[in-house]
Amino acid sequence: MSPTDTHTATPPYGAGAIGLLPGRKPITTLRLSQMREQGEKIAILTAYDATFAAVADAAGVDCLMVGDSLGMVCQGRSSTVGVSLESMLYHTQCVTQGLLRTEGRALIIADLPFGTYQQSKDRAIESAIQLMQAGAQMVKLEGGGWTTEIVAFLVERGIPVCAHLGLTPQTVSALGGYRVQGRQAAAADKMRAEASALDDAGASMMVLEMVPAELASRITQAMHACATIGIGAGSGTAGQVLVMHDMLGLNLGRMARFVRNFMHDAGDVQGAFAAYVRAVKDGVFPDKTLHAW
Ligand SMILES: Nc1nc(=O)c2c([nH]1)NC[C@@H]1CN(c3ccc(C(=O)N[C@@H](CCC(=O)O)C(=O)O)cc3)CN21
Ligand SMILES: CC(C)C(=O)C(=O)O
Ligand SMILES: [Mg+2]
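Structure tokens for the assembled complex are given below, as produced in the milestone run.
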């Protein structure tokens, strides 16, 4: 199938009413790997509720990420560390309902929150199963080499996994702040080795957050099956993700440098989401001015 056969690749991405667009094939992990192989960029936004999920889906967003960033965006916390599995389940159910109501096509990815996978593989799969039963189609967990065993354990048992390297917000205290990761040669080499191990362990996707663009590109090119998804990691990754509120220009604190306001030139929210999808697919977001690392 060529990229132009699909709904996502055919502009305009999101004119008209929410949902119920005919012939919209659901995004599967197989479809994501085809997109990676064919070089069609994967456009992802976070979502925390039914209405925004349905609007983002109708605008052509490929995956919706129920991020533990909901602790900051929805709950007003100063970090994601205190987010509970119950909160993640609630918001995953909300997003799932939004897509069911509108026959949505986006793939739902849910974050395993801090403290629900670090203890053991058993603890990780118990938490992951709950997210999958709430409607997630893939779970995401943060961390380097130590997560490889957990990723393999979940993947072998039929749970698609997204890894997450670079700035891992759940360990912000250990990292000393929300700062760029992998700047030094030794840290960059370590991240490349961890990324390859996670690829071999069967991770379908990998978020690279606040990583130098060149390092993110090198990691992307080294992957055998895993689709890299950048946030503040340049344009060389297989896809991009942003926190929905950020790209609409809504933030409780200071906006990170990698954010672009897509609401500014759009008539409405769905238009902003569609402009984001278009910009990611066309490779014009992010551009070089958006990351100073
Ligand atoms: N609204 C929101 N957007 C996000 O992107 C996001 C969340 N929340 N919560 C979870 C994590 C935390 N993230 C963050 C938080 C802060 C910066 C930040 O302040 N960046 C600055 C500092 C860079 C530096 O010190 O080098 C920047 O200018 O980008 C970046 C990512 C990304 N995630
Ligand atoms: C920004 C993405 C990658 C995330 O982890 C979140 O929203 O929690
Ligand atoms: Mg997260």
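DSSP finds eleven helices and eight strands in the chain. The mean pLDDT is 93. Further analysis is deferred to the final report.
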